[in-house]
Structure formats: C-alpha cells, structure tokens
Amino acid sequence: MTPFVSIVVFAMAMPGQATAQSSDTTEATTLAQAMSSAPKPGQSTATATVGGQIQDGRTETKSLGVTGALAHTTEKGKVLRFDVDTVYALYRPAADQPSFVAADNQLVSLTYLQAHGERVRLFGMAEWRRDYILDLDYRAWVEGGAGVVAFARGPASAFVGASYSAGREHRGDMKDGSFVMDVGVLQTFNVHLNKVLSFEQWFKGHKDTTDTGNDNYTLNVTFLTKVTKHAGMKISYNLQHDTLHPPTVSATQKQFNFGMQISFSSSAPAPAKP
Fold first, then answer.
1. E-strand spans in 154-177?
2. How much is the average pLDDT of 30-54?
3. What is the average per-residue pLDDT within 172-176?
4. Is the confidence at residue 173, as pLDDT, over 60?
5. Mean pLDDT for the chain?
6. What is the pLDDT of residues 54-79, one digit of tens each?
C-alpha cells in the first residue's frame, strides 16, 4: 500500500497577469512554481498545506506532508521565492510486524526570477533535496538559466528553458559523496479554463555531465479549482524518474494527489500621489 499524502498545486500566471488561484506543488519544481504563481508587482504571498492519513486494521499507515512557500514580486517584476516541502510516512504490513519508514523526503529551495522584455526570463536557484527511498542522503546545488515564453494567447501560455547547475550529492553507498554538474530543461503549459478552473502541465529534467548514468525527470499534470477567496482544491498526477536508485526499488515513482490549499496575499501598495 502506498501512503496517501495531501499536497498542493499551483495555477500558472506571470507577474501582472490575472490568476484564478495562487498555489503550489512539490518535487523540485520551484522554478515552475515561481513562474506560475508569482504575486503581482509590489505584493507578497504565503501558502501552506498540511495533509496526511492514518489507517489501522489489516495494515497500518501513518503519513504527514507539509508544504509552505513565501513569495514576493518587486515593483519591477522581479520574483523571489522560498519553498519548503517535506513528507514522512510509516507503514506496518501486519499487527505482529514492525513498522518501517516508507517516506522521509525533504526539499528546500530559494528561487529568483527576472523578466527581460515580454518573452525572455532569467532565473537562479539554490536547492537542497533528500530522498529516503532513493538512498539519497542529500543533493545540494545552485542553478542558473534562461528561457522564453513560447506563446501567450488569451488564457493559455507556454514556456521552455534550459539551465546549468553545480553541486554535491551523497548516497548511502558513497563514502565521501560526489560532485555533480547538470544540464537541465524546463517546459510548462497552462490554460485558465474559466474564472475558477485551471489546467497545468509541466516537465523538468536534469542530466549529470560528470556521470551520464545519473539523470532525473518529473512530469506533472494538474487541475485546480478555486473554492473561496483563500482556498482551492486540486487533483494532480506526478511521474518522477531517477536512474540512480537502490536495486530493491523502481526507478519510477507515480503519484495521484488531491488536497486543499490555503493562501494569503498582501495588498498592493497604493499609487503615489502627485
């Protein structure tokens, strides 16, 4: 049985565009988040989601997921965002058997995004990731890149970009860890179907240039609906693939998620009087 963890998703909108709901997602997607749910110029947003599950009887499952984000857009449209995402789960197959850790994953990231004209976007990131099932003790890196808005027509828009990152990682079978230098790609597509419903798809991939067998990618598809001014409901499908993994687990992880997210935004500053 796979423990259920409620997580949060986000609606796509560049700074200054209308958005049906400001929200968030997980699994090393911070650049996509910063692009999609950026506050309007001069505003800040805070989002938080806590979800989990407790089951008892034939099997026992206890899981908890916590996601939080703080974001600010300057008057000139520059975005700064801080994200924390953590999931912890215990699973016991039967009452007479011991519990074991089914998930203990964390992601902390800081993202900077700057627009140049109508189409070009420059970005910088610093991230730290841990994944218990993959035997990844930590992976820490800094990343920079650029991309273009492929099209923006009415309620739909798409973005493609490339990046380069450098850092270190340590896995359970390593003594001292290793240096990583990755090339990456990012693609996003979103459409606001109406005033309360949004659809989003994004893909992000990294390939280590120092070890051609070390690469990972994530594909996400999400539907988000606005419930109240500060709350939204979402359904998403997430596919994550890591080529480096213990022999006892699969390289691919699939997740079907749904949950509720709460968000708050500061008021935009009043225009200066002449």
1. 156-171
2. 71
3. 74
4. yes
5. 78
6. 766 656 778 887 888 888 988 888 88
Task: Work out the average pLDDT over 195-203.
Answer: 88
The percent helix, strand, coil of the chain (3-state, each to 5) is 5, 60, 35
Phi, psi (5° rounding) for residue 205? -135, 145
Q: Which residue is listed with tokens 């200054």?
A: 16
Q: Give the mean model confidence (pLDDT) for residues 230-242.
A: 84
Burial (Cβ within 10 Å: 0-12, 13-18, ≥19) of residue 204: buried
HEC secondary structure over 123-190: EEEEEEEEECCCCEEEEEEEEEEEEEEEEEECCEEEEEEEEEEEEEEEECCCCCCEEEEEEEEEEEEE
d(CA 250, CA 243): 9
Domains and CATH numbers, the chain: 30-265 (2.40.160.40)
Asked whether 206 and 240 are in contact (CB, 8 A), the reply is: no
Helix, strand, or coil (residue 193): coil
Residue 199 contacts by C-beta under 8 Å, 6 or more apart in sequence?
Answer: 190, 191, 193, 222, 223, 224
The predicted model scores a pTM of 0.73
Query: Do 170 and 202 touch, CB atoms closer than 8 A?
Result: no
Cα–Cα distance measured from residue 238 to residue 254, given in angstroms and rounded to the nearest whole number? 6
**Count of residues making up the chain:** 274
H-helix segments, the chain: 30-36
Q: What is the pLDDT of residues 136-169, one digit of tens each?
A: 899 999 999 999 988 888 888 898 999 999 999 9
Closest Cα to residue 233, out of 3, 9, 69, 4? 9
